[in-house]
């Protein structure tokens, strides 16, 4: 079986069978940041509370990229998704061929294979239109 | 703080110049600026040289080509804001009284750089980079949001490129001297939708240089000194504080600092060179630079206010879109254009009776920040 490895540690976690983005709330100033850090960049508070962010958000903006990239064959879509917590997450956007993208549309988090590297499947978070069927990878 | 004047400017022609080394490009611009100023190389007391890709101590190699040696010389890097940073540091060294006369240079050779023709790979651990972000995509995301929020069409954005390419046709230093139509721009190759190729600035080789002197000393060299009325430079703030990605907070703040320092306002600006790396940027910067209220920027463009012959011509040089964008040179090249305008030496591009010029550059992608650095300079006769 192929080993799956997150593209960077600490960004996502599985909670009762569902993936979530791992953010933090600063207990001193209330700022929510993603990804999590030990120190709040807003007030330098050190009392950070782990917080699983909403799996749903709205598409703030998107682009279809036609340039080559290290990991993705063009064309591919990327965008910012605004979560109810008031923060914007930069993400790969999938499902755009099946469902044309529009600003403001409902988006849903999924965790999928991003690319292959040295025989491993590198996984990470993506968003796709809520109207498109989700297919999370299981770790 | 002492008054500082620009007494000489010089530039290479911009373009694809793979046969020239960065030293040669920079040396050519430096010699042109020294000649323009009528200053002997041995009279230069200090210098700053901005460069990104040319390697270590490039300023020394550049000034070796222009007879300037044995001085305090500092190399600076600040991405697209590098040239403006060199100018600001040179301004301060004279304003503070440390030196009386010096030179600021910006030089870049993109075609001979280590990244030429290569895929730019993100740094390991750069989350957005690893997920497929790049410089064009960053502005494509902004542009899509901007078009959506303010009901702006791609045709309207393309008009910026039409205008600046028209200006470029009038500038002998410009990389491109070709009129473009809206259709050509929109139908050019998609890069990151909705940005197409002809909405982007090209990769460019080139250099520009500026000789500065204290207000008193300037009078010895020229009857037409151009005064640096304001110099402002800022780093970007956190992305999580950046509420509206269609408005550059850092440009707005930096510009206001500059106006305050100059004791001038946007209504006083006669000619402007701003950072049009992508066509959409110019429209957004009209608002941040205070030239109009939000929602009025299209009118400014479509009414011809910002073209040569209008009330506030913007990017008379052709801007980054047409004149080209040799990264670290752009901030200095903008100053050269404004100085020519204020002296009345801009030939076919001349803005009638220009007294105040504003230059703005911004750049350098840093994950987690709005952008790397922004700079605004205000020049006056």
Describe this structure in words.
The complex is a heterodimer of chains A (139) and B (381). With 139 residues, chain A is mostly beta strands. Chain A is 0% helix and 49% strand. Chain A has no helices and 10 strands. Chain A has strands spanning 4-6, 12-15, 18-26, 32-33, 48-52, 56-65, 76-82, 88-93, 106-117, 120-129. Chain A has a 5-stranded mixed β-barrel. In chain A, strands 2, 3, 4 and 5 form a 4-stranded antiparallel sheet that branches. The termini of chain A are close together. Chain B has a single domain (4-115, 201-380), classed as Thiolase/Chalcone synthase (Peroxisomal Thiolase, Chain A, domain 1), CATH 3.40.47.10. Chain B has helices spanning 22-37, 58-64, 82-95, 127-130, 135-150, 154-169, 182-187, 215-221, 249-262, 279-288, 297-302, 319-322, 330-343, and strands at residues 4-11, 46-50, 72-76, 101-109, 190-192, 195-196, 205-214, 226-235, 271-273, 356-363, 373-380. In chain B, the strands form 2 sheets. Chain B has a 9-stranded mixed sheet with strand order 3-2-4-7-1-8-11-10-9, sandwiched between helices. In chain B, strands 5-6 form a two-stranded antiparallel ribbon. In chain B, helix 3 packs across helix 13 (330-343). The radius of gyration of chain B is 19 Å and the shape is globular. Classes of the chains: A mainly beta (139), B alpha/beta (381). The interface between A and B is medium-sized, with 33 and 32 residues.
Q: Which properties best describe this structure?
A:
heterodimer; A: 139 residues; mainly beta; 5-stranded mixed beta barrel; 4-stranded antiparallel beta sheet; 10 strands; 0% helix; B: 381 residues; alpha/beta; Peroxisomal Thiolase, Chain A, domain 1; 9-stranded mixed beta sheet; two-stranded antiparallel ribbon; 13 helices; 11 strands; globular
CATH topology of chain B, what is it called?
Peroxisomal Thiolase, Chain A, domain 1
Oligomeric state of this protein:
heterodimer
Instruction: Show unreliable segments of chain A.
Output: none
Question: How large is the share of residues in beta strands of chain A?
Answer: over 45%
Q: Kindly, what is the distance between the CA atoms of the first and last residues of chain B, rounded to a whole number of angstroms?
A: 19 Å
Q: Please give the number of β-strands of chain A.
A: 10
- Basic shape of chain A: globular
Largest beta sheet of chain B: what is the strand line-up? 3-2-4-7-1-8-11-10-9
CATH class value of chain B: Alpha Beta
Question: Over all CA atoms, what is the radius of gyration of chain A?
Answer: 16 Å
N→C terminal distance of chain A? 11 Å
Number of helices of chain B: 13
Number of helices of chain A: 0
**Total count of strands of chain B:** 11
Overall tally of domains of chain A: 1
Shape of chain B: globular
Averaged pLDDT of chain B = 96
CATH architecture of chain B: 3-Layer(aba) Sandwich
The helix-and-strand class of chain B reads alpha/beta
């Amino acid at each position: 079986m192929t080993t799956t490895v997150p593209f960077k540690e600490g960004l996502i976690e599985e909670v009762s069978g569902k993936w979530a983005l791992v953010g933090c709330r600063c207990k001193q100033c209330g700022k929510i940041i993603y990804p999590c850090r030990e120190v709040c960049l807003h007030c330098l508070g050190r009392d950070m509370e782990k917080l699983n962010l909403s799996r749903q958000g709205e598409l703030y903006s998107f682009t279809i990229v036609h340039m080559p990239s290290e990991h993705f064959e063009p064309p591919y879509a990327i965008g910012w998704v605004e979560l109810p917590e008031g923060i914007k997450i930069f993400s790969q956007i999938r499902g755009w061929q099946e469902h044309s993208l529009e600003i403001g549309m409902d988006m849903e988090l999924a965790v999928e294979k991003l690319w292959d590297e040295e025989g491993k499947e590198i996984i990470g978070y993506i968003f796709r239109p809520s109207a498109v069927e989700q297919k999370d990878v299981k770790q | 703080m002492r008054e500082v004047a620009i007494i000489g400017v010089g530039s290479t022609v911009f373009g694809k110049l793979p046969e020239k080394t960065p030293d040669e490009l920079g040396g050519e611009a430096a010699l042109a600026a020294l000649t323009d100023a009528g200053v002997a190389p041995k009279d230069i007391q200090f210098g700053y040289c901005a460069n990104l890709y040319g390697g270590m101590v490039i300023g020394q190699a550049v000034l070796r080509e222009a007879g300037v040696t044995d001085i305090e010389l500092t190399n600076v890097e600040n991405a697209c804001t590098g040239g403006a940073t060199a100018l600001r540091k040179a301004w301060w060294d004279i304003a503070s009284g440390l030196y009386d006369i010096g030179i600021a240079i910006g030089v870049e050779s993109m075609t001979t750089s280590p990244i030429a023709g290569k895929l730019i790979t993100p740094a390991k651990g750069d989350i957005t980079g690893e997920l497929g972000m790049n410089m064009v995509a960053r502005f494509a995301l902004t542009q899509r949001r901007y078009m959506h929020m303010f009901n702006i069409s791609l045709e309207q954005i393309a008009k910026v490129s039409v205008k600046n390419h028209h200006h470029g046709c009038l500038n002998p230093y410009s990389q491109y001297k070709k009129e473009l139509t809206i259709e050509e721009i929109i139908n050019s190759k998609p890069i990151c939708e909705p940005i197409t190729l002809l909405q982007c600035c090209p990769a460019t080789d080139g250099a520009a240089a500026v000789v500065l002197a204290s207000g008193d000393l300037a009078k010895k060299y020229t009857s037409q000194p151009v005064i640096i009325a304001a110099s402002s430079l800022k780093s970007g703030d956190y992305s999580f504080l950046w509420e509206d990605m269609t408005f550059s907070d850092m440009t707005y703040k930096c510009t206001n600092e500059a106006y305050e320092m100059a004791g001038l306002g946007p209504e006083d600006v006669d000619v402007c060179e701003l950072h049009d790396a992508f066509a959409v940027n110019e429209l957004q910067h009209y608002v941040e630079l205070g030239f109009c209220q939000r929602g009025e920027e299209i009118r400014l463009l479509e009414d011809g206010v910002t073209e040569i012959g209008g009330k506030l011509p913007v990017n008379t040089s052709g801007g980054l879109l047409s004149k080209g964008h040799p990264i670290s040179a752009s901030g200095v090249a903008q100053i050269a254009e404004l100085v020519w305008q204020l002296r009345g030496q801009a030939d076919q591009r001349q803005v009638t009776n220009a007294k105040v010029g504003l230059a703005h550059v911004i750049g350098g992608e840093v994950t987690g920040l709005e952008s790397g650095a922004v700079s605004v300079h205000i020049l006056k006769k």
